UniProtKB/TrEMBL annotation:
<dbReference type="InterPro" id="IPR018151">
    <property type="entry name" value="TF_GreA/GreB_CS"/>
</dbReference>
<dbReference type="InterPro" id="IPR006359">
    <property type="entry name" value="Tscrpt_elong_fac_GreA"/>
</dbReference>
<dbReference type="Pfam" id="PF03449">
    <property type="entry name" value="GreA_GreB_N"/>
</dbReference>
<feature type="domain" description="Transcription elongation factor GreA/GreB N-terminal">
    <location>
        <begin position="4"/>
        <end position="74"/>
    </location>
</feature>
<comment type="similarity">
    <text>Belongs to the GreA/GreB family.</text>
</comment>
<dbReference type="InterPro" id="IPR036953">
    <property type="entry name" value="GreA/GreB_C_sf"/>
</dbReference>
<dbReference type="Pfam" id="PF01272">
    <property type="entry name" value="GreA_GreB"/>
</dbReference>
<keyword id="KW-0804">Transcription</keyword>
<dbReference type="InterPro" id="IPR001437">
    <property type="entry name" value="Tscrpt_elong_fac_GreA/B_C"/>
</dbReference>
<keyword id="KW-0238">DNA-binding</keyword>
<dbReference type="InterPro" id="IPR022691">
    <property type="entry name" value="Tscrpt_elong_fac_GreA/B_N"/>
</dbReference>
<dbReference type="InterPro" id="IPR023459">
    <property type="entry name" value="Tscrpt_elong_fac_GreA/B_fam"/>
</dbReference>
<feature type="domain" description="Transcription elongation factor GreA/GreB C-terminal">
    <location>
        <begin position="82"/>
        <end position="156"/>
    </location>
</feature>
<dbReference type="InterPro" id="IPR036805">
    <property type="entry name" value="Tscrpt_elong_fac_GreA/B_N_sf"/>
</dbReference>
<keyword id="KW-0251">Elongation factor</keyword>
<comment type="function">
    <text>Necessary for efficient RNA polymerase transcription elongation past template-encoded arresting sites. The arresting sites in DNA have the property of trapping a certain fraction of elongating RNA polymerases that pass through, resulting in locked ternary complexes. Cleavage of the nascent transcript by cleavage factors such as GreA or GreB allows the resumption of elongation from the new 3'terminus. GreA releases sequences of 2 to 3 nucleotides.</text>
</comment>
<keyword id="KW-0648">Protein biosynthesis</keyword>
Length: 157
């Protein structure tokens, strides 16, 4: 059974989604199916089929979340320190060509959100950064060709 690395925030978000599905969404869909059944012939009842499809999605997502939470390897990033990039690090890098700075936090796959500066541990940039140290230069294989970045800052927030 492969462990899934995630931050405490990511674990809490998945747990909250699971609780919402079980306590809010599941009862709502059961009520919708019950109401649709009262409308008569189920073979031609679009409401019933839509509700059953949504129920199937909810049950699948519940099973997926329960599995991920059971295999979660929660890493408390506040206890990490140093100048080496590890899971949970917030890294400021500079594009050596354009001198543009970017800051990314390396998180689990389910937490990734590039718009808010969170990149998945499996992303090309995170894989290139892991194990490197402050002031190292890393090469990242990007869709437009290889890019070089210098690590300016490594933080564990």
């Amino acid at each position: 059974m492969q462990r899934i690395p995630m931050t405490a925030e990511g674990h809490a978000a998945l747990d909250a989604e699971l609780k919402n599905l079980k306590t809010v969404e599941r009862p709502n869909i059961i009520a919708a199916i019950s109401e649709a059944r009262e409308h008569g012939d189920l073979s031609e009842n679009a409401e019933y089929h839509a509700a059953k499809e949504k129920q199937s999605f909810i049950e699948g997502r519940v099973a997926e979340l329960e599995d991920k939470l059971a295999r979660a390897d929660v890493i408390d990033t506040s206890k990490l320190s140093g100048d080496t990039v590890k899971f949970g690090a917030t890294v400021t890098i500079m594009d050596e060509e354009s001198e543009e700075e970017s800051t990314y936090k390396i998180v689990g796959e389910d937490e990734a959100d590039v718009a808010s500066g969170k990149v998945s541990i499996t992303s090309p940039i995170a894989r290139a950064l892991i194990g490197k140290e402050l002031e190292d230069v890393v090469e990242v294989a990007a869709p437009g060709g290889a890019k070089s970045y210098e690590i300016l800052k490594v933080e564990y927030i």
